Amino acid sequence: MTSTDTTPVVADVSGPIDFVLLEFPQDRLTGAAGNALMDLVERGLIRLFDLMVISKDADGGVDVLEVTDPTSPAGGFAYFHGARSGLLGDDDVAEAAAAMSPGTVAALIVYENTWAAPFVAAARDSGGELIASARIPATEVMAALENLDPNS
User: Are 14 and 87 in contact (CB under 8 A)?
Assistant: First the structure.
């Protein structure tokens, strides 16, 4: 690093770690979500820790699907076969399955927001400490933006 370079050195710092549970109707699986996730990973915006695909049949039976077969319901995520850090366990699968509707497939994903690591490092170097955090659902943000008066 040169003396004029102000980019913070990111060492032993990670971005925020999130999880999402994305539910899909079994008859609408296109693989597009898997491709979009792969793009985020390849561009370095996120680092994937865990990905599990869970199926819940019409009777409420639950299976964790292997993501190795591109023609299976989990096939859109085949690129991520073996993405297991150990952060997710049986209790997480049970909790995810309880949230799912019958006749759906869901992707349970744990990832790091690597894009935020330089900001986290800079905040820590300045004595900053996270004291609150929340996620606002995108649907709420979009609804609020739609209700804005363009003339104000």
Answer: no
Q: How far out from the chain centre does Cα 5 lie?
A: 32
CA–CA gap between residue 148 and residue 112 (Å, rounded): 32
Q: Which residues pair with 28 in a beta bridge?
A: none
pLDDT tens-digit readout, 29-73? 888 898 999 999 999 999 999 999 999 999 999 999 888 777 777
Distance CA 42, CA 139 (A): 27
> Six-digit token pair at 87?
């952060």
* Domains in the chain: boundaries: 17-115
Q: Specify the pLDDT at position 152.
A: 63
- Exposure class string for 55-71: b at 16+ Cβ within 10 A, else e: bbeeeeebebbebeeee
pTM for the complete prediction? 0.79
Dihedral (C-alpha) 126, 5, 10, 52: value to the nearest 10 degrees?
120
Q: What is the pLDDT of residues 117-151, one digit of tens each?
A: 999 999 999 999 888 888 888 899 999 999 987 77
Q: What's the gap between Cα 144 and its chain centre?
A: 24
Residue 23: strand pairing partners: 106
Q: Tell me the β-bridge partners of 64.
A: 54
Cβ distance 11 to 17 under 8 Å?
no
